[in-house]
Amino acid sequence: MNPADTGQAHTATMAREALFELMRPIDDAVREWPRKTGRAARNRVLDAVRARGLSYQSRDEDTWAEVSAAAGPARLHIAALGHLLGGHHRLHHTAGINQMHRLADLVFGPGATGPALREVEQTLSSWQTSPHLLEWQVGNAVLDALLSAGSPCLEDLPDTLVRQLVAEYNNVAGLNSRRRGLIKLSRVLASKGTIPAPLHSNEGKAGPRSDMLSTVPLQWAEWALRWRKFSTHEPGTIRSMFSVILIAGRWAAEKHADVIAPDQWSRDMAAEYVADTMHATVGQWAGHNRNRSRFGQPICPGGRAARIDSIRGFFCDLIEWEWIKPRFDPRRVMSMPLSLRAQMGPNPRIIDDASWAKLMAAGLTLNAEDLKPCGSGRAREAGWKATYYPVEMVRAMVGVWLFGGCRVDEIRRLELDCVTWDQATDDTTGEPFTICLLHIPQNKTSRPFNKPVDPIVGQLIDAWKLIRPPQPDLIDRKTGQKRPHLFCHRGQLVGKDYLNHNIIPVLFHKSGVPQADSHGALTSHRARAAIATQLLNARESLTVNDLQQWLGHKHPASTRYYAEILRRTLTAAYKKADYFARNVRTIQVLIDRESILTGAAADGEQPWKYYDLGEGYCSYDFFAKCPHRLACARCPFYVPKQSARGQLLAVKDGIDQMLEQLNLTDDEREALEGDREAVGTLAERLADTPTPAGPTPRELGTTTSFIPLSQVFNSTLEYQENRFTQPNEQVGQAPKKQQKNPENNRKIAQISASEHTFDGEP
Fold first, then answer.
1. d(Cα 191, Cα 196) in Å, to the nearest integer?
2. pTM of the prediction?
3. Nearest-CA neighbor of 195 among 187, 203, 205?
4. Which residue intervals of 279-406 are DSSP H helices?
């Protein structure tokens, strides 16, 4: 045999073996495919190897995508081979392949992804996810994730991969549906424990915006971002403080371009910033501000206080964490000016009673027709009337909002078993009544606690729980623990803006109440102030301490920002206190007209005015100014009613009755109210004070006696109701003159003929 022929044969054999070695992985991959389809795909791959001079194992993802795009009808099979042979699990993204079911069957085998799909669909169906979304939105998202992971099992989907896919589909035209499907898939994975927490629709919006940071000096922005990373404040507090910290950086860049970093700030510079903040306008140093409605107007006191408080807290944290050396005391230099503090005080933004009553009526009669239906326009035209959330769930939310006095965050985070029923007995009537206790989760100022609410709240919640489908346990953002939430639907909490943006406008429209008043927009949080104010002004009102516990405030001062004493309540309390009348009393006075007409009173021979003291009369003309009005039994001006002279006044003709007001001292008022100790103290103090007749009470022996002013009344009206019977007998107006009758004349004659004399009567 010719050696040349032998060499050629050997070369051909080696080439054949190399070709078989090159084809063997492809043949193994397409063995389960239709023979014709598999052979066509294999030939496409081998032609690309020959044309490019590059083995398919060493091709990158772009090369496989290019080969797949040129394959025409075999594009799907080339992508499957790139996945199996080249390990490019994301090739369906680059090649723009949408036939996910066929691609998954080619990669994993027919029906290999079926169990994973059924598990996801069944779980979401139990959470009442819309059925029409399961097949095309959720199904494609699950297959996309499985292909990207290179496994047909859900347990092999890592959290990083799911987040990466959601980030890639963010704001990509035509792929928002795929992104929403991946978010639904993350809820299933989180409930299974495959990933730590589900993803949210605003995953891409976390952190500061780039346009916000671009207007801040780089050195200051680095300090601010570092503070944001380590701060332990509430997320909302961090966001608001962070924006104000950036404002201080822009101010420093404008006023002191050579002093940018926080460790370079001096005491004078900090004081200058506070002074400039006091005269700042809206939008000044704010960078990218999309809301320009009040641009250029003076900042409100609360806004100025927020700017000063935030920068003070920023510098305090930097000094406390030992990031900078203190060059001044922020608590003193950046303290709020007294002039600004005086402008800030409790100003509860309550809702007036009439509007609140209409909102309550609208909330208690809310039905499905009042809510906005969900679905496309074509679906609604076809008769689709379902709302996004069940109406029972919406009614329960409205009930908690109307009667619970809770924050929006507290309403969203209510536990499934948040209602406790109990029985109690009324102290007055002895009748039993039902108690409904609402368990409030941990909030920003207090630990979990129970508060009593109207039983209708518990009834609405129980009605929702009867039809509530099973939902996964979600992680509470405050405690970090998984627990069942009351207002959870489709595997997620109700939206934080759903109450303000969807439900409350419906209630305003139904009740006819405008959505704004003199205090501003009627938001959900203003209901908290309205309820607190009504509880504080009720007939049997809550005390401030009770209201503090009911609202869940840590300090009583916080309660003052939610509840205020209404003007009508203050007026009623002032009237009830009877400040003026408590020291003013009226006393009955008898006027002897006969003594006046005959001139006996003018000559001093006979008194003309007698003050009715109950057990006797005082004939002293200036009784209203006498300091001994409560102890005058032995005073020469005192006339007992049982004496002959006193009986004569009762039956004598020409006696008119009138009322006269007395201004009582504190001692006299206490004596009238039954304070015997006050009576003794008064008598002892006046023991050596001369009476109108001259002698002192000690000389008269009246230091221990007491004449109660039983005819002194609290008010003229009371006297009229209890004393006068004639309609024309009014204060300051004498009644009709007593008529002469034989019986009176007979009594006068008997008294005149008696042995007693007027002078020296006991």
1. 9
2. 0.69
3. 187
4. 301-320, 330-333, 338-342, 353-364, 377-381, 391-403
Q: Are 463 and 498 in contact (CB under 8 A)?
A: no
- Going by C-alpha positions, the residue among 712, 621, 633, 703 that lies closest to residue 665 is 712
List the structure tokens of 211.
Answer: 């346009």
Burial class (CB in 10 A: 0-12, 13-18, 19+), 356: buried
With CA atoms as reference, report the closest residue to 314 among 226, 254, 398: 226
Question: What is the sign of the dihedral through the CA atoms of 196, 202, 203 and 205?
Answer: negative
Select from 241, 234, 213, 208 the least CA-distant residue to 310: 241
d(CA 202, CA 209): 13
Residue found by looking up tokens 């006969």 in the block: 594
CA of 741: how far to CAs of 90, 611, 726, 733, in Å? 124, 25, 20, 24
Catalogue the long-range contacts made by 751-754 (C-beta closer than 8 Å, 24 or more residues apart). Answer: 751/644, 751/647, 751/648, 754/644
Neighbour count for residue 194 (Cβ, 10 Å): 17
d(CA 759, CA 617) in angstroms, rounded, equals 15
Rounded-to-integer distance, Cα 225 and Cα 228, Å: 5
pLDDT tens digits along 155-200: 999 999 999 888 888 766 667 888 888 999 999 999 888 998 888 8
Helices (H) and strands (E) in the chain, counts: 36, 15
d(CA 62, CA 43): 19
Residues, the chain, total? Answer: 762
Chain center to CA of 160: 36
- Please answer whether residues 253 and 265 qualify as being in contact, where contact means their C-beta atoms are separated by less than 8 angstroms: no
Q: Could you read off the pLDDT of 309-338 as tens digits, one per residue?
A: 999 999 999 999 999 999 999 999 999 888
Where do the domains of the chain lie?
Answer: 14-204, 210-342, 353-569, 581-752
Return the DSSP state at 584: E
Do the beta carbons of residue 678 and residue 670 sit within 8 Å?
yes
Give CA separation, 274 vs 314, 326, 712, in Å. Answer: 14, 18, 64
What single DSSP character describes residue 554?
S
CA 583 to chain centre: 45
Indicate the burial class of 165 (C-beta count within 10 angstroms; 0-12, 13-18, 19 or more).
Answer: buried
CB 313 within 8 A of CB 274: no
What is d(CA 432, CA 415) in angstroms, rounded to the nearest whole number?
Answer: 28
Distance, CA of 651 to CA of 639 (rounded, Å): 15
DSSP track, 215-231: TS-HHHHHHHHHHHHH-
For residues 9-18, give the mean pLDDT.
Answer: 55
Tokens of 94: 């680059």
Mean per-residue pLDDT of the chain: 77
Place of tokens 């002892």: 684
**Distance separating alpha carbons of residues 395 and 417, to the nearest angstrom:** 17
pLDDT tier at 751, thresholds 50, 70, 90? very low
- Residues in Cβ contact with 304 at an 8 Å cutoff, skipping those fewer than 6 apart: 277, 278, 280, 340
Q: Confirm if 438 and 457 have CB atoms less than 8 A apart.
A: yes
CA distance 494 to 401: 14
CATH 3.50.50.60, domain 353-569, yes or no: no
**Which residues have a Cβ under 8 Å from the Cβ of 508 and sit 6 or more positions away?**
359, 514, 515, 522
Residues pairing with 591 in the sheet:
609, 656
Q: Read off the amino acid at residue 481.
A: Q
Q: Using CA atoms of 143, 144, 148, 152 in order, give the dihedral in degrees to the nearest 10.
A: -10
